[in-house]
Every structure is written in structure tokens, then in C-alpha cells.
Specification:
This protein is about 25% helix and about 30% strand. It has about 180 residues and is of the alpha+beta class. Strands 1-2-3-6-7 form a five-stranded antiparallel β-sheet, sandwiched between helices. Strands 4-5-8 form a three-stranded antiparallel β-sheet. β4 and β5 form a beta hairpin. The protein starts with 12 loop residues before the first helix and ends with a helix.
Length: about 180
């Protein structure tokens, strides 16, 4: 496995979005290696999610996992998941604003409104159909990665840029509020 280079804010690939992955290419060694490399890259940088566009691949693939992550202490666990060609819809109109960061925008955090629960339809890495409801932080992570696959960043969703803060100041002034 390899650690991949993560695109940063300003790279046009982050704003272009991704194309559906043809399902006949999902089982290819190249696609499976990309998925493994994305997981390794996400873990290397203490991420809880990573979209293929963040590693210079315009494919609708996202990986996520929350397990004792130092960037998101006290957040509920989310099992390692691979979402291929995901589609999400709100499961209710209820929204919640909370802090987010991004591997493509290192060292910054901001408060972002997201749906509290969403319906997710996707394929897993083996092509099996997924159809489930995600809630809370799990839903937030999926929405964040889904935005990446559609050329959006968490900054685009912020209602109030006055909450935008460097990670060090977030830890100092905001983390325990």
C-alpha cells in the first residue's frame, strides 16, 4: 500500500467533482489498490474520511472510519466503510451545526450545518448494494465526503466564517465549548 498525495485547497480537482465508477472496473486490481491506498492515506493523516478526488482521482469513491481519532476525540465510532458511487438524501429536515476539518484544508476548522440523518445508497468495494440510514457524526462524515465528490468543500457550507479557526486555536478556545 502507498500513502497518496492529498490535494489542497486551490487545486482545481477539488472543485471539479467526480464521475461514477463503472461497476465492471470496481473489482480491477487497480481500483482495489486505489481503495487500499485511500484507506492507508486517510489513516496516515488521522482523517475520518477521504474522497478519491482528494487524491487526484475523479472517481466517486469515498472511504471513512472513526476509531480513536486524535482529530475528533469523543466522537462515536464508525466502522471502516467504502462507498462507491454514493447517493445521499436527507432522512429528515432536522439539521445540526458542528465543527469540521478537512485533509485538503489542513489545520483549519469551522462550524458547518449538516442534516442529522441521511439515507445512503451506494456500493461497497465488492459491488454489494448498500442502502442505510446514517445519523449524527456518521452522517456528517458521509455528507462531507459526498460534497467532495460533487466539487464542494466544507467552507462552502459554512453560514458564518467567524467560526473559521486554526486547529491550535480550536483546541485552545473552542474544543470544550
Amino acid at each position: 500500500m502507498s500513502i497518496l498525495k492529498v490535494t489542497r485547497l486551490g487545486h482545481p480537482g477539488l472543485r471539479t467533482g467526480a464521475e461514477d465508477l463503472p461497476l465492471d472496473r470496481l473489482s480491477s486490481p487497480l481500483t482495489q489498490k486505489l481503495i487500499d491506498d485511500m484507506i492507508e492515506t486517510m489513516k496516515e493523516y488521522d482523517g475520518v474520511g477521504l474522497a478519491a478526488v482528494q487524491v487526484h482521482e475523479a472517481k466517486k469513491i469515498a472511504v471513512l472510519e472513526v476509531a480513536d481519532n486524535p482529530r475528533y476525540p469523543n466522537k462515536p465510532r464508525v466502522p471502516l466503510s467504502v462507498l462507491v458511487n454514493p447517493d445521499i438524501t436527507p432522512a429528515s429536515d432536522e439539521m445540526e451545526e458542528d465543527w469540521e476539518g478537512c485533509l485538503s484544508i489542513p489545520d483549519l476548522r469551522g462550524r458547518v450545518p449538516r442534516y442529522k440523518s441521511i439515507r445512503v445508497r451506494a456500493r461497497d468495494r465488492k459491488g454489494k448494494k448498500l442502502d442505510f440510514i446514517a445519523a449524527g457524526f456518521h452522517a456528517r462524515v458521509i455528507q462531507h465526503e459526498w460534497d467532495h465528490l460533487n466539487g464542494r468543500l466544507f467552507l462552502d457550507r459554512m453560514r458564518d466564517l467567524s467560526t473559521l479557526t486554526y486547529l491550535q486555536e480550536f483546541a485552545r478556545y473552542w474544543m470544550n465549548k
